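hey
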């Protein structure tokens, strides 16, 4: 199945809960307010399930995985505040038509794997966590109950940028600086702390892990190893094009690159003549299948 592992699609219940909040994250009509970023005018057409299903078909996808938008900061809210948003997100996701599936989400302000187990029982593909929950050894210590549950069930983890800190930069600043920095750090934190704790975990990093794999030569020069490829540590392509993807393939090989678009915020990668049919099949079909199922 041709698969896009990274899209966002808000359902009616989730929107209603956001509109009922007095503090960020919240919606006022269709204007989104979150900490650390300027107000954002959401296009309601971007969250029309029928239109998005038609768009997925036009993009050539048989399966699309949606996820909670972690920069909203929902996962970091106190449990009592997070629960209504998480419940609404999950119920909306389960109601989506084909070709949609979804990543589950979990509160990380206080760790409790029980709700996650319940959602996984209902068919979610795995778990998405915000990258800023997994930036160091302490993060892996705190999130271990969630990650151990995934290992026990043979399900993958998707690491997505979390909330951006407040800044006075332009509107594109969060996506280009703190998001990338989080993903870069998360990639190396998994290598340093995560893999030893969770040897069977399949993991996927959004936005090519902030291009962290391109620093393999510096890693080797500074004593961090020779850049051994972890075949169960995947990277998805959202917001990047052929040059960045080609460079990442040169660093790691193609077997861990999977297609993710981040729709409605970016289109999927366009495969030109520089890639060819075999590479396109690996990135859109074979590699996502191995990420999600563990099967070659």
């Amino acid at each position: 199945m041709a698969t896009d592992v990274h899209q966002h699609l808000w359902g009616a219940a989730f929107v209603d809960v956001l509109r009922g909040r007095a503090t960020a994250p919240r919606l006022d009509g269709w204007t989104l307010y979150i900490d650390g970023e300027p107000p954002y005018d959401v296009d309601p057409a971007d969250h029309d399930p029928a239109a998005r299903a038609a768009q997925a078909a036009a993009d050539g996808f048989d399966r699309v995985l949606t996820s909670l938008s972690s920069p909203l900061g929902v996962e970091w809210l106190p449990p009592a505040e997070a629960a209504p948003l998480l419940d609404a997100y999950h119920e909306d996701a389960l109601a989506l038509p084909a070709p949609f599936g979804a990543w589950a989400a979990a509160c990380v302000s206080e760790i409790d794997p029980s709700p996650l187990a319940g959602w996984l029982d209902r068919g979610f593909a795995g778990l998405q966590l915000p990258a800023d929950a997994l930036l160091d050894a302490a993060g892996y210590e705190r999130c271990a109950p969630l990650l151990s549950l995934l290992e026990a069930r043979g399900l993958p983890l998707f690491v997505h940028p979390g909330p951006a800190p407040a800044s006075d930069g332009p509107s594109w600043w969060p996506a280009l600086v703190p998001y990338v920095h989080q993903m870069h750090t998360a990639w190396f934190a998994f290598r340093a702390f995560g893999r030893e704790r969770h040897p069977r975990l399949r993991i996927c990093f959004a936005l090519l892990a902030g291009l962290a794999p391109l620093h393999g030569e510096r890693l080797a020069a500074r004593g961090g190893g020779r850049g051994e490829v972890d075949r169960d540590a995947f990277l998805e392509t959202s917001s990047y094009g052929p040059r960045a993807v080609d460079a990442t393939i040169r660093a790691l090989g193609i077997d861990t690159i999977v297609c993710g678009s981040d729709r409605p915020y970016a289109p999927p990668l366009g495969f030109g003549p520089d890639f060819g049919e075999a590479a396109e099949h690996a990135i859109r079909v074979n590699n996502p299948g191995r990420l999600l199922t563990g099967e070659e």
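Residues 178-197 form the longest helix (20 residues). The radius of gyration is 18 Å.
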